[in-house]
């Protein structure tokens, strides 16, 4: 969609305008969110500038900060993909947490039980087990969605709560590490651990994730399934009329999303912790959704937004130490960035319509007229009003 | 009290948050606003309800304050989806994050990190004379805290309002066909706004009830999925107040059963018992989604100038 519009004659200047139009809302909303946070910090009696300095600089001040930021970037990117890929087809996967846990469980199970295998065999098996675990868990929700029209928001969320108990059972009954003092499994075999590079050590899951992002972006833009997925997201009915099996595409999108989350679970086990433990999912689900939404569901944008958010997250805990500002504030900042981004889209659409030149109302890069899709999820093949709103209605039993 | 009476009384108490949250979902949804921030509303309601009750010394004020904060979130959701036509799911999720962050931050700022958590008194029971003396039914239904009565009476009132008054019918028409409602002179925007505000207020009150009846304090994540279950319950109850109350009995029954079985130890690992409410919900949704008559405009935004039909 994007390409078709931008490739018209005289596109160079329009492309520049489009780039500006895409970047400015991000800058405005980040600045606005920080201003609000600064006011809150000042009201709490702290110095906002000291706080912000530690937020922004911690990731780059030391080599530890850099490694820590990249290590955090891995699960954030993968969980954001787990949300963004189904969103492309107009489906909301809120179950990344459960899919991560099942992926981690699968990886730990292989890493513990098959510990005799040599590394070239065991390590790929561990990662594959993670991908399968996440894919299967998402597959339950996808099956309920296509077979019984159960709203996938609900089924994926409910499966998260089931997964917590699965984790607890595996970690305290099946392969418990009795000395840990909290639910945790014994360590996986050394041969199941991801190799590291550099010093301080960074696991190669970072490169695996980068590869996944590259392949994912290529498939979304340049493959038939990717095209079908975007078509379903933009206009499900039109896609069906043109012979795309929309239900199958939606199921596929949710399952692939689950696989991404499962892979991140496997990387957490074999790259970071070395075992499966309670709380391994951290708050990656929330952050993944925020990142996916801030990136407007674009697989290309996700890694960059994820990097920004991991800087914020790493900085927030430093901020708590240096400026005594509670780290919980960072979740509010992230929520505000998203809200302001949505609002600035509306503002941009209004301004564009008021411009006297009388050109087409649709901005370059937006597949639908601005007034028809004021949802802020327009470009880059994500769900507009059609996909998102069709979800609960079709899920509600209307054929 | 016998074992059965005791169990049923606990179920009735556990029903209250489900009833408030699901009726709130239903009320907003009947006007076309699908609020997916329940879990956040419950959490912020719990934090505000607890903190205000602690500082003011009155649980009633705490409940009202929680309702007011919930209403504020509801106003944001209803306003930006109605006037700016932003996506309801996206805004709902954003408010969910904001509420989780705000709840956690509020507690940190007001209470800080303490060795022992401060406690508020739990809601006292209002024993209704005569009725409470009926065997079994008496202690289960008429020897409860006032919120139980409010939930049941309020649900009945909600049913009467929606299905027996003009204002209720107008509200439903906005959720079914806003274009038709608009052409008849019904103020679609105003209806959506106040339904969204009232719905979120009910959800936050549901959250404020949690510290007042279970723990006496606020902890992060104390909503424990009840918000999401409330959405499922709304579908399960077919978007009708009377069936939502009946469904709440099922959800609350599952919750109490799972807790009791974990305490008693019944031979199977307690983790599997704890899964029960969620797995059971997934199973009943198979039937609920076939049965539920969902408001036609649920989750969609009305644009008066749109040339599309419907």
Keywords:
heterodimer; A: mainly alpha; two-stranded antiparallel ribbon; globular; B: 310 residues; mainly alpha; two-stranded antiparallel sheet; 12 helices
Notes on the structure:
The complex is a heterodimer of chains A (399) and B (310). Chain A is mainly α. Helices cover 71% and strands 1% of the residues of chain A. Chain A is built from 15 helices and 2 strands. A two-stranded antiparallel ribbon of chain A has the order 1-2. In chain A, a hairpin with a 4-residue loop joins strand 1 (196-197) and strand 2 (202-203). Chain B is globular and about 60 Å long. Chain B has a two-stranded antiparallel ribbon. Chain B is an all-alpha fold and 310 residues long. Chain B has helices at residues 3-30, 38-56, 59-82, 88-110, 137-141, 146-164, 166-176, 178-183, 188-215, 226-236, 241-264, 270-291; strands at 126-127, 143-144. Chain B is built from 12 helices and 2 strands; from the N terminus they run H-H-H-H-E-H-E-H-H-H-H-H-H-H. At the A-B interface, helix 7, helix 12, helix 14 and helix 15 of A face helix 4, helix 10 and helix 12 of B.
Give a short overview.
Chain A is mainly α and 399 residues long. Chain A has helices at residues 2-6, 11-43, 48-61, 63-88, 96-113, 119-148, 152-174, 205-222, 224-234, 236-241, 246-273, 284-294, 302-323, 329-354, 385-395, and strands at 196-197, 202-203.
List the helices and strands and how they pair.
The complex is a heterodimer of chains A (399) and B (310).
Chain A: H1 2-6, H2 11-43, H3 48-61, H4 63-88, H5 96-113, H6 119-148, H7 152-174, E1 196-197, E2 202-203, H8 205-222, H9 224-234, H10 236-241, H11 246-273, H12 284-294, H13 302-323, H14 329-354, H15 385-395
Antiparallel strand pairs in A: 1-2
Helix pairs in contact in A: 2-3, 2-14, 3-4, 3-13, 4-8, 4-11, 4-12, 4-13, 5-6, 5-7, 5-11, 6-7, 6-11, 8-9, 9-11, 12-13, 12-14
Chain B: H1 3-30, H2 38-56, H3 59-82, H4 88-110, E1 126-127, H5 137-141, E2 143-144, H6 146-164, H7 166-176, H8 178-183, H9 188-215, H10 226-236, H11 241-264, H12 270-291
Antiparallel strand pairs in B: 1-2
Helix pairs in contact in B: 1-6, 1-9, 1-10, 1-11, 2-3, 2-4, 2-9, 2-10, 3-4, 3-9, 6-7, 7-9, 10-11, 10-12, 11-12
């Amino acid at each position: 969609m994007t390409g078709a519009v931008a490739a018209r004659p005289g596109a160079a200047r329009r492309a520049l305008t489009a780039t500006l139009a895409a970047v400015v809302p991000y800058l405005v909303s980040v600045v606005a969110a920080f201003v609000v946070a600064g006011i809150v910090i000042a009201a709490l009696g702290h110095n906002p500038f000291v706080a912000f300095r530690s937020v922004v600089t911690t990731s780059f001040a030391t080599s530890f900060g850099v490694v820590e930021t990249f290590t955090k970037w891995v699960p954030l990117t993968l969980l954001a993909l787990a949300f963004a890929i189904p969103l492309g087809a107009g489906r909301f996967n809120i179950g990344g947490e459960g899919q991560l846990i099942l992926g981690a469980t699968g990886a730990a199970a292989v890493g513990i039980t098959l510990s005799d295998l040599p590394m070239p065999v065991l390590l790929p098996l561990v990662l594959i087990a993670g991908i399968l675990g996440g894919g299967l868990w998402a597959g339950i929700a996808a099956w309920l969605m296509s077979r019984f029209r159960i709203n996938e928001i609900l089924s994926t969320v409910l499966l998260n709560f089931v997964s917590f108990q699965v984790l607890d059972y595996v970690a305290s009954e099946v392969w418990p590490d009795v000395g840990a003092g909290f639910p945790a499994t014994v360590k996986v075999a050394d041969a199941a651990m991801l190799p590291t590079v550099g010093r301080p050590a960074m696991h190669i899951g970072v490169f695996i994730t980068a590869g996944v992002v590259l392949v994912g972006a290529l498939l979304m833009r340049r493959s038939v399934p990717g095209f079908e997925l975007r078509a379903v997201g933009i206009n499900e009915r039109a896609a069906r009329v043109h012979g795309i099996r929309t239900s199958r595409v939606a199921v596929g999108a949710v399952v692939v999303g689950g696989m991404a989350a499962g892979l991140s679970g496997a990387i957490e086990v074999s790259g970071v912790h070395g075992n499966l433990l309670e709380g391994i999912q951290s708050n990656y689900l929330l952050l993944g959704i925020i990142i996916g939404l801030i990136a407007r569901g674009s697989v290309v944008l996700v890694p960059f937004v994820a990097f920004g958010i991991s800087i914020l997250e790493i900085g927030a805990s430093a901020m708590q130490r240096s400026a005594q500002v509670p780290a919980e504030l960072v979740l509010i900042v992230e929520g505000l960035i998203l809200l302001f981004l949505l609002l600035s889209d509306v503002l941009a659409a209004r301004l564009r319509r008021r411009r006297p030149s009388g050109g087409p109302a649709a901005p370059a890069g937006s597949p639908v007229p601005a007034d028809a899709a004021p949802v802020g999820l327009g470009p880059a093949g994500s769900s507009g009003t059609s996909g998102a709103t069709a979800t609960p209605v079709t899920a509600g039993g209307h054929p | 009290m016998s074992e059965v009476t005791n169990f049923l009384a606990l179920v009735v108490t556990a029903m209250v948050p489900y009833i408030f949250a699901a009726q709130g979902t239903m009320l907003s949804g009947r006007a076309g606003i699908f609020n997916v921030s329940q879990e956040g509303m419950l959490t912020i309601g719990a934090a505000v309800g607890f903190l205000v009750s602690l500082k003011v010394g009155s649980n009633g004020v705490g409940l009202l304050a929680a309702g007011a904060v919930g209403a504020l979130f509801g106003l944001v959701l209803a306003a930006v989806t109605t006037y700016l036509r932003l996506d309801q799911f996206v805004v709902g999720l954003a408010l969910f994050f904001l509420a989780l962050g705000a709840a956690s931050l509020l507690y940190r700022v007001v209470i800080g990190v303490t060795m022992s958590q401060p406690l508020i008194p739990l809601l006292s029971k209002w024993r209704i004379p005569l009725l409470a003396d009926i065997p079994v039914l008496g202690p289960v239904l008429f020897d409860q805290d006032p919120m139980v009565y409010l939930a049941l009476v309020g649900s009945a009132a909600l049913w009467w309002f929606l299905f027996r008054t003009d204002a209720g019918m107008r509200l439903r028409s906005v959720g079914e066909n806003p274009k038709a409602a608009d052409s008849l002179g019904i103020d679609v925007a105003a209806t959506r706004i106040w339904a969204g505000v009232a719905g979120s207020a009910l959800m936050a009150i549901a959250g404020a009830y949690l510290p007042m009846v279970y723990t006496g304090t606020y902890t992060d994540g104390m909503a424990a999925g009840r918000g999401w279950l409330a959405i499922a319950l709304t579908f399960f109850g077919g978007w009708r107040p009377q069936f939502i109350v009946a469904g709440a009995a099922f959800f609350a029954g599952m919750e109490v059963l799972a807790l009791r079985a974990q305490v008693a130890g019944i031979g199977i690992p307690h983790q599997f018992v704890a899964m029960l409410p969620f797995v059971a919900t997934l199973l009943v949704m198979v039937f609920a989604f076939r049965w539920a008559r969902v408001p036609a405009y649920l989750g969609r935004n009305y644009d008066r100038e749109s040339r599309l039909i419907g």
